[in-house]
Structures are given as C-alpha cells and as structure tokens.
Amino acid sequence: MQGTTLRGKTALVTGSTSGIGLGIALALAAQGANIMFNGFGDPTAITKLQADTAKEFGIKTSYHNADMSRPQEIELMMRAAADEFGGVDILVNNAGIQHVANIEDFPVEKWDAVIAINLSSAFHTTRLALPRMKANNWGRIINIASAHGLVASAQKSAYVAAKHGIVGLTKVTALENAQTGITCNAICPGWVLTPLVQKQVDARAAEGGISVEEAKRKLLLEKQPSGEFVTPEQLGALAVFLCSDAAQQVRGAAWNMDGGWVAQ
C-alpha cells in the first residue's frame, strides 16, 4: 500500500542507482518522498529508473551525477536539489567504495579515494543540507556506515577508518542538533549482496576454485551468524522508521542490522 507519511518531503540518496542506496530510495519513495538519485550507471537505465519510480509512487524524481569525491560537484548537486525541490529534507549518505590490502601495501591514492567518498562526502552534504533543515526545524540525516563502523577486519584500513569516522560524525551532528527537529543516525549493515560484495564473492570463488554459492556461504559464516544476507529492502524499512515521528528521539544511534555480526 502506498504511504503518504513523507509526502512533500524531498530525499537525496547518494549512491542510489544500485544496491543499498536504491533500496532506501525506493522505500522512501513508497512513503511519498520526492527522490533525487545520485550515482554511476548507464544514462538510459537511470532515466528509466527515474521515470518508473515517479510513475509508481506518484512523486517527483531527479538525478545528479556528482562525483562524491569532489566537494565542488557535491555543492552543485545540493544547489540543483534546492533549485528543483526547494532543498533536501531527508539526506541519506550512502555512496561508498572499497579497496582491500595490508596497510604497508595500501596505495595512497586508494586511501585518499576511500576517505573522500566514504567519509568526507557525508560532511559536505551535511553542512550544505543543515541550513534548510534548521530553517524548517525538521530534517533526517541517515549515514550508511557498516558493521565495519563498529568493529574491524584485516586489510580494510581505509574502509574501517572511514566507517568509524561516519559513526563519529553522526554523533556530533546529532548532538549539535539535539534540541531541534533534526535527527542524525547511522545504519550499520552487515553483508548485503550489493555489486560491491558480489565482486568479493566472485574473487573468492575464483581464488578457491569453488562455486559462487559456496563462496557466498563461506563469506557469510566468517562474520554473519545468521548465515543470511541483509537485504536492501530491510535497510529501506529501517530508514523509513528513522524518518518517522516514532523515531524523533532516536538521535546519534549506530544501528546495526548485521545478522548478529557485532554481537559476537
């Protein structure tokens, strides 16, 4: 059933042309929020995604191809959201990349790119979204961290540092706006079968000479006691809750949805 709880609000979801970001964007659209998509992909497919989403949920959609590692492009995207929708009411910082290597072998440019996209971009979107949210005394900032925002894994120094940083940024944003109608929280997913994770599964299957299904099972059971992937739809439902009136006093939380990963 199509909801109307967010009707008239505008949500910007970074990295929303696939994976977790897309799942969250569609969940917010189903509640009546207008959506500004962002991310990479085939232009024709993105245009179709916009049109299909607008038609299905009776909302307005837009798209901006800002490279989230470039502050000036982020500024242009936020300006476009202001011009088109009046601004951003719901900000979901989801864009992310991964690189895996030991610290002494980690390419410096990869470190810089992971920090820029996974951490600094959220600072830039947040600083640019807050003035409108403060003027309206309403806003929802949701930072997609990771189980790696709470615990670490070897060979993921940049990702883990960025995601721990996102959890810290979330807490500061929440505290600075604690007596306003603006909340800021982090969602910390475990393994989700996104294109990013599928690459890791395929690499593991190739290296070990095992099937993709076996590689998935091994990947999950190393970290995720449930043995099941978290889905973008489940994360979308949590994002909708965090945007609701019921979550008005959920502030500065790092909410793990991880099949038991960090309970160990």
UniProtKB/TrEMBL annotation:
GO terms for biological process: monocarboxylic acid metabolic process. GO terms for molecular function: 3-hydroxybutyrate dehydrogenase activity. InterPro entries: 3-OHbutyrate_DH, NAD(P)-bd_dom_sf, Sc_DH/Rdtase_CS, SDR, SDR_fam. Pfam families: adh_short. Belongs to the short-chain dehydrogenases/reductases (SDR) family. This is 3-hydroxybutyrate dehydrogenase.
